[in-house]
Amino acid sequence: MPGINVLIAPVLEIVPCAPKLMAEQYSAVILTSRHAAQATAEAFPKLTAYCVGDATAQAVRALGVTAVSVAGSADDLISHLAGKSLSRAIHLHGKHTRGDVARRLTASGIETHEAVVYDQRARTWTSEERDSVAQAQSLVVPLYSPRSAQILSKRLEIYTGPLTLVAMSQACIDAWSGPVPICSVVAQRPDGATMTQAVASQLT
């Protein structure tokens, strides 16, 4: 889009973990992030992965694993699984997670264990990234998780220009404590495509 400068300055980096996982103990895998796709393919290649969104399901399928997407939120995923006759499931997730998926599924009648298969570590900005952000005439900032919102709140204390927030969920907005934005938008659906549309809507 003419006149738009895209700044790429990630605040998180994904670092795989290596837990011991016993495939024969489970009848299904629960995924709430595409970052757990590789661990699923390595430990549970023959199980069906029930995924919170399309991007996660596509990442798993690309690795040869059968996947089902509910194309929604963690709540939608739990509701979808409530009627399934699964003997035991495992939720693979990052070190920082929300939604209490395993406990809620267990309470609904599906015994669900959980395992941390990656960490979302804070990434330090380079001096070039920091300067580019600080000198921007205006910013439209996508928030994909409450954790990234918390980190960006502190990073953007250096910024004094007009700021627009585009969030994956209301939880991301609630986690924001940085400069007061001129506008805050929550994507209609918690997925990458909808977030892209929401960001684009603020660039006109």
Can you give a write-up of this model?
The protein has 204 residues and is an alpha/beta fold. It contains eight helices and nine strands. The strands form two sheets. A six-stranded mixed beta sheet has the order 1-6-5-2-3-4. A three-stranded parallel beta sheet has the order 7-8-9, with helices on both faces. It is elongated, with a radius of gyration of 19 Å.
Map the helices and strands:
Elements: E1 12-16, E2 28-31, H1 37-43, E3 48-51, H2 54-61, E4 67-69, H3 74-81, E5 88-94, H4 101-107, E6 111-122, H5 127-134, E7 139-143, H6 146-155, E8 163-167, H7 170-174, E9 183-186, H8 192-201
Helix pairs in contact: 1-2
Outline of this structure?
By secondary structure, this protein is α/β, with parallel strands linked by helices.
Features:
204 residues, alpha/beta, six-stranded mixed sheet, three-stranded parallel sheet, 9 strands, elongated
Share of helical residues: 25-40%
Mean pLDDT: 93
Question: Strand order of the main beta sheet, please?
Answer: 1-6-5-2-3-4
Low-confidence stretches: none
Pattern of helices and strands: EEHEHEHEHEHEHEHEH
Please state the CA-atom Rg, rounded to the nearest Å.
19 Å
Euclidean distance between termini CA atoms: 9 Å
What composes the largest sheet? 6 strands, mixed
Given the structure, what is the number of helices? 8
